[in-house]
Amino acid sequence: MKKLFNLSLIIGVILTMTFAGCKKYENGPAFSLASKKSRVINIWKVEKATGATGQDYTAYYVGYTIEFKKDNTYIEIDGSSSESGTWAFDGNKLNLILTPNAHTSGQVYLILKLKSKELWLKDIYNSYELHYAQK
Q1: Quick one: which of 99, 1, 87, 103 has its CA closest to 44?
Q2: pTM for the predicted model, two decimal places
Q3: CATH classification of 2-134 is 2.40.50.140, yes or no?
Q4: I need a labelling partner for 91 at 20 to 30 A (CA). Which of 6, 22, 110, 135 fits?
């Protein structure tokens, strides 16, 4: 009986330590069975946009959508104009890098939240945040 209790205690501690370390992004999720790539692949619309000092820029993003595709390409639609390119994670999957077809360098975004219906990104150069919702 004592061995069973000790074994249960050890398993409980291991599980607690494992799941406590699963939260990769600042705002979650704490745990997900879906891969990071499968959570990014979606059509997203801007739900909220804020500047570096907290100004609300959401009104500038009305009609703006971005679609991340399975083949690591994306298309961004902003009213009447559009841009396409490739997307990738950095080595730690903490940042999302968007490289437009017309450029050789990419725009880097820190991933703050990555859920199947929510994506929060922070531009690491200009410090503005974009909170996306599934379209």
Answers
A1: 87
A2: 0.78
A3: no
A4: 135
